[in-house]
Amino acid sequence: MLFGLVRRAAIIGLLISGVSLLMIVLVPRGDIVSGVVLWMWRRLNAGIPGAAAVSPAMVAFIANVGLFVPFFALVSALRPRWWWIAVGVASSMTIEAAQVFIPTRRADVADVLSNSVGAICGVLLGIAARNLWEFIAARVRSWEPRSDTERDGPGP
Question: Is the distance from CB of 67 to CB of 24 less than 8 angstroms?
Fold first, then answer.
């Protein structure tokens, strides 16, 4: 029962993160995305002493990494395959190619790199989470009480 609920929650999270990902990377107004990055940079500089060494470009790179992590962590936790990394890199390249045709957006090699790093981190995290979940599930199943016939052996 619990494992089915976790699977359903992961699927819902996957759908939400996938739609959010597409909305963010294909929004026609690039100034909105730039504004969010600048807002994050200002918050970082205001709240953390010594954070002035972090540039808006570094914040954008980290945000692009974080953009791909949830989606690829969830998809690889549901279907653990190493080739999700290639899917992540290809997705990043496709998104950047699509942004060439959006007048207010610009394609950037740094975005491809950061999104690819995010996909790699997400796949590693998802496969590790899946392995941990399967280990825990096996331990829980081994703790379940046995029936009388399994405990006492076959009857007379």
Answer: yes
